[in-house]
Design a protein that fits this description.
Phosphatidylinositol 3-kinase Catalytic Subunit, Chain A, Domain 5, alpha+beta, 18% strand, 33% helix, 2 domains, seven-stranded mixed beta barrel
């Protein structure tokens, strides 16, 4: 009986560990070759006003025999879906009613797919950079969304759009992110949480990362729409009712200076010349945590540089530009006077 008790306890602890909670899809960073079949003529034409799901399919190549999954496919997002800046919307795919237990997609249900904005090599580079930004934050903390790179062929089942193959990536579901870190992802409205309830170290780490990639298109405790919290981030908590020690996890980096998309523009109230100009938006109440956060980033500099160097999908010019931009961040945090002027004195 004692032996069975300890064996059962070991199994429970294994299942509770972050490694055990990791889903197969996000267990490595190799590129997947997939085909998505859906009525893309309708999805693209109605994306501005509709996120209705449409029946489709995903075909996974390169894993032995091609594997086919029936899906629901819908447009998602706000800015890229509702403006004229992009000709193809981000997508959400829903695996409902598939048997996934012994497949690469085990544990998946609804997934965000970051797609191309426009079908050009220059735009493809932007989303490779955005994918790289996810990888950079993975090097800082496990409290970060993972992403899986894709080579996606879009096949229009209505037969009116030409088949095209583009770079894209899946973003880890927020509940999977929470589970592998033994947390829950809060579903709350703006105003329920505030800065005093954030974990100071995690919030400072979050703000310093956003400063590193030159991103101000986020909020840790509020939403730009005034509805669900939070803008381009999710809060992780010890339980569904916990309202302290909240850990923000960021996503959506296409408006950052690191990506430098043609459509990205800084908010007028920050008086920034362009998105390449960094602006620190960490909270003043967390200034005491800034030195430790800086030390953490400095300790991970080699790993951050290695991620950029290994991203061979980037052109040499883009890779060098990305590296110089990150180097300029380390120049700032390595200079106490600039830390005071550009971080501490600009806190909110």
């Amino acid at each position: 009986m004692i032996r069975h008790f300890w064996a059962g306890l070991a199994a429970v602890l294994l299942l509770a560990s972050p490694a055990a909670a990791q889903t197969p899809l996000f267990s490595d960073n190799s590129e997947l070759d997939i085909v998505i079949e859906a009525p893309f003529t309708t999805i693209v034409r109605t994306a501005r006003r509709s996120t209705d799901p449409h029946p489709g399919a995903l075909i996974l190549n390169g894993q032995g025999e091609p594997q086919r999954y029936n899906l629901l496919v819908s447009a998602r997002g706000r800015t890229r879906r509702q403006t004229d800046r992009c000709v193809f919307p981000p997508l959400r795919i829903d695996f409902e009613n598939n048997e996934l237990r012994s497949t690469l997609f085990r544990g998946q249900n609804r997934l965000k797919l970051t797609t191309h904005c426009r079908p050009s090599a220059n735009y493809a580079q932007l989303y490779i950079l955005e994918y790289t930004a996810y990888r950079l934050y993975n090097e800082i903390t496990p409290m970060s969304f993972r992403a899986r790179p894709l080579r996606v062929t879009y096949r229009d089942t209505e037969g009116r759009r030409r088949e095209e193959t583009q770079f894209g990536f899946f973003v880890e579901d927020e509940d999977d992110l929470a589970r592998r870190n033994q947390r829950v992802a809060l579903e709350i409205e703006t105003g329920v949480a505030n800065a005093t309830q954030l974990d100071p170290e995690a919030a400072t780490r979050f703000a310093l990362f956003q400063f590193m990639i030159g991103n101000v298109d986020w909020d840790m405790v509020a939403s730009a729409s005034g509805r669900d919290c939070c803008h381009n981030s999710r809060l992780l908590a010890a339980s569904e009712t916990a309202r302290s020690g909240l850990i923000p996890a960021p996503y959506d980096f296409d408006s950052s200076g690191f990506v430098d998309a043609p459509y990205a523009a800084p908010p007028e109230n920050l008086r920034m010349r362009n998105v390449r100009e960094r602006y620190y938006r960490g909270y003043c109440r967390h200034n005491g945590q800034v030195p430790a956060a800086i030390a953490l980033f400095q300790s991970r500099r080699a790993a951050i540089n290695a991620v950029i160097a290994a991203e061979t999908r980037l052109s040499e010019q883009r890779r060098q530009t990305a590296q110089r931009y990150i180097d300029s961040f380390f120049d700032v945090i390595g200079d106490p006077e600039r830390v005071q002027r550009q971080l501490i004195d600009r806190c909110r």
